[in-house]
């Protein structure tokens, strides 16, 4: 009987991972259906709306993604004329980003939260709970036979 309980606990935890992953995927699908852009692109638009004129490096830091990934996202949005590049008057080398009217409309009709449901849920946790979760997930990732640290920089919408 004790052996059966030991086997059930990892499966219960696995189900929670499935629930999280499935819910995140479902949210991203809803974003794409409603907005025609990816969840990460929506988050990027939201961050540009918060600070018009922000550059790619600043946005990459705020989204916790690699600068080259952010640059590619910005290019895709610029091609679709959702993001406009504006040169700084003070420093002509600096290019800031602003939203087009179409992008503003997309943000208004987008299902929230723009940053995604997992970042929102994590932000709602106390620091103590997050610290414990971080330590526990470090233990889990330490047990993985195959692990690519670079994957941690990929947006969830790309997994």
From TrEMBL:
Cited InterPro entries: HTH_MarR-typ, WH-like_DNA-bd_sf, WH_DNA-bd_sf
Source organism superkingdom: Bacteria
Keywords: DNA-binding, Transcription, Transcription regulation
Gene Ontology MF terms: DNA binding; DNA-binding transcription factor activity
UniProt keyword annotation of Protease present: no
Entry keyword annotation includes ATP-binding: no
Domain HTH marR-type: 1-142
PROSITE patterns xref list: HTH_MARR_2
A Pfam family per the record: MarR_2
Annotated protein name in UniProt: Transcriptional regulator, MarR family
Organism: Georgfuchsia toluolica
């Amino acid at each position: 009987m004790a052996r059966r309980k030991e086997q059930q606990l990892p499966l219960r935890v696995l189900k929670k991972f499935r629930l999280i992953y499935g819910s995140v995927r479902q949210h991203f699908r809803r974003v794409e259906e409603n907005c025609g852009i990816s969840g990460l692109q929506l988050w990027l638009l939201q961050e540009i709306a918060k600070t018009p004129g922000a550059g790619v490096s600043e946005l990459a830091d705020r989204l916790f993604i690699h600068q080259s990934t952010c640059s590619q996202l910005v290019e895709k949005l610029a091609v679709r004329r959702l993001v406009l590049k504006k040169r700084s008057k003070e420093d002509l080398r600096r290019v800031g980003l602003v939203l087009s009217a179409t992008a503003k409309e997309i943000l208004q009709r987008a299902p929230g939260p723009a940053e995604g449901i997992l970042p929102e849920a994590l932000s709602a946790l106390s620091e103590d709970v997050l610290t414990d979760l971080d330590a526990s997930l470090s233990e889990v990732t330490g047990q993985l036979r195959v692990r690519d640290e670079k994957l941690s920089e990929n947006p969830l919408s790309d997994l």
